[in-house]
Amino acid sequence: MSATIRKIVAATDLSMYAHRAALRAGRLAREHDASLQLLHVVNAASANALQKLLPTAPPIGAAMIAEATQAVQSLAEDVAKAGGPTAECRIEEGDVTDTLLAVAADADLVVLGPRGLNPAKDFLLGSSAERIARRVRSPLLIAKQEAALSYECVLVPVDFSASSLQAVRFARALAPRATLHVFHAYDSPYEGRLRSAGVTEEAIKSYRHTLQLEAEAALCELLARAPDVKDVRSRVELGDPRVAICTRADELQSNLIVMGKQGRSWFSEFLLGSVSRRTIERAVCDVAIVPG
For 69-125, how does the pLDDT look when each residue is reduced to its tens digit (9 = 90+)? Predict the structure, then answer.
C-alpha cells in the first residue's frame, strides 16, 4: 500500500450524500496535493430496461450520460468553490460496482457516501458502501459528515492482524496532524462457562485481568512495528467490539474511524466482517476501511 496519497477517486451517484463525500474528497486532495477524479457510472441495465419499455424514444442511455455529465461538472464546480482542486470528471456506463472497482484500481483512496439511490437493493444486499467495501483493493473512505473540518481525532480499532497494522499506518498518512487513538476491545469468551462450572468470582476476575494484560502486550507489540507513527494514544477495553468501537468514537468525538478490512476466507470476505459492517452502519463519523 502506498504511504502517500496521490490519486483520489470520488464515486458519486449524484445524491446529497455523494455531494458531501465529493467535498470531503476535494478537501483531502487539497491537503495531500493529490489529483481528484469524480466518477459517475450510468447503470447500463437500467438504461436498457427503460429503452425496452419506450422503444420509440430517443436513445435513453445517451440522454442519461449527457445528463450525468452536466451534473458531475456542476459537482466539480462546487468542489472547486469549496477550495478543492480542479477535478477530472469521468462518466462510465456499465455495472456500477464492477466499473467503479476497475476505474479505482490504481487509486490511493476511494471516497463515497454512505447511501445509494436504490433502497430495495440496499435492503437486500447491504448498502452500496458495504458492497464496494467487500471487494475494493484500495483504502475506502465512507464520508458521512460535512467536510468543514480536517481530521483531528482519529480512532483506529485494531485486532492485531496485518490489516490492523496497515490501518494504523494509513490513518497517519491520511491525517498527518491528527491524534491517533489506537483501540482494542476484547471479550471474555469463557467467562459464562466458568461461572456455570462454579468457578469463583475471584478466579474469573483474575482470568479477565490476564486477558487484559495479554491485549495490552499485543497492542504494544503492534505499535512497536510502526515506530514511524507518532502521536498515538492506546487503550484496551473489555467489551463487544461491534458496540465498543462506536461508543469509544463518540466518547472521543472522533471525526474519523480507520479500521483494517476483516476477512481471512472467501466467506468472511463476502460478509465484510460483522465488526466492520456494524461500524459502517452505526458510526456517525467518517469511516475508512483499509485492505490488509
Answer: 999 999 999 999 999 999 999 999 888 888 999 999 999 999 999 875 444 344 333
Cα–Cα distance, 13 to 96 (Å, whole number)? 10
Longest distance between any two alpha carbons in the chain, whole Å: 79
The cell numbers describing 115, all together, are 447511501
What average pLDDT does the segment 54-82 reach? Answer: 82
Terminal CA-CA length for the chain: 9
pTM: 0.86
- d(C-alpha 140, C-alpha 114), whole Å: 11
Of 58, 92, 241, which Cα lies nearest the Cα of 156?
Answer: 241
* Helices within the chain (DSSP H only): 16-32, 44-53, 60-81, 96-103, 119-125, 128-135, 162-174, 191-196, 201-224, 241-252, 266-270, 274-282
Is there a contact between 181 and 194 (Cβ–Cβ < 8 Å)? no
Strand partners, 155: 181, 257
Lowest mean pLDDT among 9-18, 77-86, 186-195: 186-195
Q: Check: CB of residue 8 under 8 Å from CB of residue 25.
A: yes
Domains along the sequence of the chain with CATH: 1-147 (3.40.50.620), 149-292 (3.40.50.620)
At 220-274, the pLDDT tens digits run: 999 999 999 988 999 999 999 999 999 999 999 999 999 998 644 434 444 456 7
Q: Which residue has the cell 515506530?
A: 227
Please give the DSSP secondary-structure letter assigned to residue 75: H
What is the residue whose three cell numbers read 475471584?
Answer: 202
CA pseudo-torsion sign 223, 224, 228, 231: positive
